[in-house]
């Protein structure tokens, strides 16, 4: 069976202009490439120019349009400027808050700067970009934030990230209500484990095997499966979907969380 669904017709997103954060690598790159193949012009940011240029080359090779705009989303002014620059040239119909991440640590080992770094990246930057996007949407828009499955259930070794993602879940619902009258939809996608290079670099084969076994559908999520869902939620087909936390996790929300604390990485949760 083909795992990475590829269900949309060519040109399904013609006329769309979507800004994707963290578009140089992993899930963000998969999203950027897919949206561009469907006809959207995609603006992508990240701190490093080189990965963005690689996404630009891949998109161009497939005949699409990708505008690399390096910036740090934790710098609110720089992020606003990057988004406004893209929107002034191409318009804006969608925003995908994908840049994010964390380190794994027991709650008692998270120091103030580590806490702040994760909250700034995974929550505060998302708020600033949503706020910046609002006046740039003309005639409606769609905002998606990439979160993490299980945030609302809790997780071991990720207290800072779970707190930030829970904040994003609340923000998603609040903005969905406030902006619905302007046809701005706001949703959150919560993936299970995705075997991106970044995740591989921060995990052992044993841990990945365990995460696979603990996922009711016995495999990890593919970036293309997140990207396809993003395309759907940005499209008019999802016109009545807003304020939702939508999991792409093979059912792992229903299973016991894996202990991500360094001392017990990959072991059974107690
Ligand atoms: C079932 C679970 C599945 C999990 C699935 C999720 C997977 C993913 O999300 S993977 C894809 C995302 N990629 C990453 O998470 C990797 C990138 N991570 C980071 O870049 C950092 O963790 C960051 C988000 C905190 C980035 O912050 P930045 O400001 O760039 O980082 P600094 O190096 O300056 O550190 C700031 C602060 O944080 C402390 N810190 C960093 N690592 C640790 C650690 N392992 N333990 C404790 N504290 C840590 C660092 O020490 C700094 O504080 P001070 O030392 O006090 O200055
Ligand atoms: N992989 C997984 O298993 C899962 C991932 N997720 C989430 O999905 C998202 C993407 O993850 P994934 O593709 O695996 O990870 P990556 O680390 O590959 O992607 C993160 C991207 O965000 C960019 N980024 C990080 N910090 C900043 C910043 N301050 N400003 C601008 N860009 C930034 C990075 O580029 P640069 O370094 O150049 O800035 C990078 O391209 C993250 O939010 C992650 O937490 C959720 C569930 C599971």
UniProtKB/TrEMBL annotation:
Subcellular location field: Peroxisome
Major site of localization recorded for this protein: other
Pfam families: adh_short_C2
Alphabetized UniProt keyword annotations: Fatty acid biosynthesis, Fatty acid metabolism, Lipid biosynthesis, Lipid metabolism, NADP, Oxidoreductase, Peroxisome, Phosphoprotein
Entry's Gene Ontology molecular function annotations: trans-2-enoyl-CoA reductase (NADPH) activity
The protein's Enzyme Commission number: 1.3.1.38
One GO term (biological process): fatty acid biosynthetic process
Catalytic activity: (2E)-hexenoyl-CoA + NADPH + H(+) = hexanoyl-CoA + NADP(+); (2E)-tetradecenoyl-CoA + NADPH + H(+) = tetradecanoyl-CoA + NADP(+); (2E)-dodecenoyl-CoA + NADPH + H(+) = dodecanoyl-CoA + NADP(+); (2E)-octenoyl-CoA + NADPH + H(+) = octanoyl-CoA + NADP(+)
Involved pathway(s): Lipid metabolism
Classification via InterPro entries: NAD(P)-bd_dom_sf, Peroxisomal_t2-enoyl-CoA_red, SDR_fam
Membrane-crossing segments per the record: none
Family: Belongs to the short-chain dehydrogenases/reductases (SDR) family.
PANTHER family assigned: PEROXISOMAL TRANS-2-ENOYL-COA REDUCTASE
Described purpose of this protein according to its UniProt entry: Participates in chain elongation of fatty acids. Catalyzes the reduction of trans-2-enoyl-CoAs of varying chain lengths from 6:1 to 16:1, having maximum activity with 10:1 CoA. Has no 2,4-dienoyl-CoA reductase activity.
Subunit structure: Interacts with PEX5, probably required to target it into peroxisomes.
Protein name stated in the entry: Peroxisomal trans-2-enoyl-CoA reductase
Naturally occurring in which organism (per UniProt): Enterovirga aerilata
């Amino acid at each position: 069976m083909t795992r990475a669904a590829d269900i949309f017709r060519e040109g399904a997103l013609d006329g769309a202009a979507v800004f994707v954060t963290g578009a140089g690598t992993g899930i963000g790159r998969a999203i950027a490439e897919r949206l561009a193949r469907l006809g959207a012009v995609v603006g992508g940011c990240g701190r490093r120019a080189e990965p963005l240029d690689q996404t630009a080359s891949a998109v161009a090779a497939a005949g699409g349009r990708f505008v690399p705009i390096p910036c740090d989303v934790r710098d609110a002014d720089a992020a606003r400027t990057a988004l406004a620059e893209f929107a002034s040239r191409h318009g804006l119909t969608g925003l995908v808050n994908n840049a994010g991440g964390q380190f794994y640590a027991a709650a008692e080992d998270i120091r103030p700067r580590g806490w702040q770094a994760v909250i700034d990246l995974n929550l505060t930057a998302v708020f600033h970009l949503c706020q910046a996007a609002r006046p740039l949407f003309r005639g409606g828009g769609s905002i998606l934030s990439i979160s993490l499955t299980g945030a609302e259930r809790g997780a071991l070794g990720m207290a800072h990230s779970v707190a930030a993602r829970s904040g994003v879940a609340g923000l998603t619902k609040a903005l969905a209500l406030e902006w619905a009258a302007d046809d701005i939809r706001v949703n959150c996608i919560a993936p299970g484990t995705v075997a991106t290079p970044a995740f591989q670099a921060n995990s052992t084969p044993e841990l990945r095997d365990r995460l696979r076994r603990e996922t009711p559908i016995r495999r990890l999520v593919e970036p293309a499966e997140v990207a396809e869902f993003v395309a759907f939620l940005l499209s008019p087909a999802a016109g009545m979907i807003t304020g939702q936390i939508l999991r792409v996790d093979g059912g792992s929300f229903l299973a016991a969380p894996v202990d991500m604390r360094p001392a017990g990485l990959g072991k059974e949760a107690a």
